TrEMBL record:
It comes from the Bacteria. GO terms for cellular component: plasma membrane. The chain crosses the membrane at residues 6-28, 40-60, 80-103, 137-162, 190-208, 233-256, 276-297, 309-331, 337-355, 395-417, 437-458. SUPFAM superfamilies: MetI-like. Keywords: Cell inner membrane, Cell membrane, Membrane, Transmembrane, Transmembrane helix, Transport. Belongs to the binding-protein-dependent transport system permease family. InterPro entries: MetI-like, MetI-like_sf. Gene3D superfamilies: MetI-like. One of its GO terms (biological process) is transmembrane transport. It comes from Treponema bryantii. It is a multi-pass membrane protein. This is Thiamine transport system permease protein. It is found in: Cell inner membrane; Cell membrane.
Length: 461
């Protein structure tokens, strides 16, 4: 058991280090340098949220697999994919845009006084970066890396498809315990170990996130004047090359390999049935998450307890529960999966995402507006309907879109719940890949990825 545990930690740590090693330099270039494609690179910051990991796995098989684009084009036999290195590289570069987006935003908003003072005292740029800038960014880097570690710690699809023989992670081993070996006792022990560890990581994340917010409050930010890339091109060019071959090209390979089978997939009755199921679940999950997130945000605002450690910790607790564990626990209680149960479990895990979106909107309501609403309204409900709801309409739509897109790409919960005669698009894609209908899986996966990114982008407007 502990061999699996430490292997899981190793995979998560190495994946996070790769994501940080590429994501932090990319954040520097997007925040402080001007170059063609900067906005496009930043737009990929939502990849780890809106593009399912199953699609990334399909992309790596299409591009780096034994019969993939690279091996066919160069006549080589790259076989690193089905190994620990393949898992780490896929997970690491999958999360690079997430770290880039968070750290880049923080880098743009850094106050320049300490850097300027260090320059006046004769410090070089490298020393300023090491002793001043990275210390200022430590909160943002921690707030970005800890969720990435959790994403990789709970990784299921990529490990399930790429893990070498004899090696497994907690999440995959729990799934095998409850679906293959039927060893419920072993599965329960692994689930408990996984969840306790995750709770400790989540509490650390909650502390780092609060510290990051505290250290950046009350500072006037000066817009950054971005300079052209000159001497730093020696770092920039290899970095862009790595992002291209380990992220952009694999994602593009999904669409290229699936193009020929797109018509066959669209003519399939199973595809349209799965599409309808995904839309129904996505709408229900998005609406439930948005309603729950709005209710919690309003409750925190009306109680004037935004700074409460407990109230700020509650929304991050679902991050400590994996999709496999919560789905398995639900099947143990309810004995069989249903679409309603799927929506309930997705809501339980995804509502904090809606809450974070909505909280930002509610916090933008000025003190004067809030005070006037309390004074002139007939009660708290009237204040919510007439003030909070209209003011938060854009973020409510954004929260709904985020949760809808994540629900659309979820293949793990439907797989574990094993709902009879019920496929979602993501699960349908997984079954196509499992049946070795790889081109059709890429076609369906491309549709899932395109829909997720479209919904996600509409939610950001």
């Amino acid at each position: 058991m502990f061999k699996i545990y430490f292997y899981t930690l190793e995979i998560a740590l190495l994946s996070t280090l790769i994501a940080a090693a590429a994501g932090i330099p990319a954040a520097y270039f997007t925040a402080r340098r001007r170059f063609p494609g900067r906005r496009i690179l930043l737009s990929f910051s939502a990849v780890s949220l809106c593009v399912p990991s199953l699609i990334v796995a399909l992309g790596y098989v299409s591009f780096w697999g034994m019969n993939g684009t690279v091996n066919r084009f160069f006549g080589t036999h790259f076989s690193f994919l089905y190994s620990t290195a393949g898992i780490v590289i896929a997970q690491g570069f999958y999360n690079v845009p997430f770290i880039t987006g968070i750290v880049s935003e923080a880098w743009e908003r850094l106050p320049r006084e300490q850097e300027n003072a260090a320059r006046l005292l004769g410090a070089g740029e490298t020393r300023i970066l090491r002793t001043v800038t990275l210390r200022q960014l430590s909160g943002a880097i921690g707030a970005a890396c800890i969720p990435v570690f959790l994403f990789c710690y709970f990784s299921f699809m990529i490990v399930l498809l790429f893990s070498p023989v004899g090696r497994s992670t907690l999440e995959v081993e729990i799934y095998h315990s409850i679906r293959t070996t039927l060893d419920v006792s072993a599965g329960a022990k692994l689930a408990l170990l996984e969840t306790v560890t995750a709770f400790g990581i989540v509490l650390a994340y909650s502390y780092v996130a609060r510290r990051s917010q505290t250290t950046s409050s009350g500072v006037d930010y000066v817009p950054v004047v971005r300079r052209r890339i000159r001497g730093s091109a020696v770092i920039f060019v290899p970095l862009v090359f790595l992002i291209l071959i380990f992220l952009i090209f694999p994602l593009g390979a999904v669409f290229v390999n699936g193009a020929g089978e797109l018509g066959k997939v669209l003519r399939s009755r199973g595809f349209w049935k799965a599409c309808a199921n995904s839309v129904k679940c996505g709408v229900a999950t998005g609406a439930a998450c948005t309603l729950l997130g709005f209710a919690y945000s309003v409750a925190v605002k009306l109680k004037r307890r935004q700074a409460s450690v407990i109230l700020q910790t509650v929304p991050v607790l679902p991050m400590a529960i994996s999709s496999v564990v919560i789905s398995w626990s639900a099947t143990m209680i309810f004995h069989r999966g249903t679409p309603a149960l799927l929506v309930a479990l997705q809501t339980a895990l995804y509502w904090p995402i809606a809450y974070r979106q909505i909280q930002n909107g509610i916090n933008r309501i000025s003190y004067e507006t809030d005070a006037a609403a309390r004074l002139l309204s007939r009660g708290w409900f009237d204040s919510v309907v007439r003030v909070y709801l209209p003011a938060c309409r854009p973020v409510l739509l954004s929260a709904f879109a985020y949760c809808f897109a994540i629900s659309l790409g979820d293949a793990t919960m439907p797989l574990v719940l094993s709902i009879r005669n019920f496929d979602t698009l993501a699960l349908y894609t997984y079954k196509l890949a499992g049946a070795y209908r790889f081109s059709q899986a890429c076609a369906c996966g491309g549709i899932v990825a395109a829909l997720s990114m479209l919904i996600f982008s509409l939610g950001k407007k």
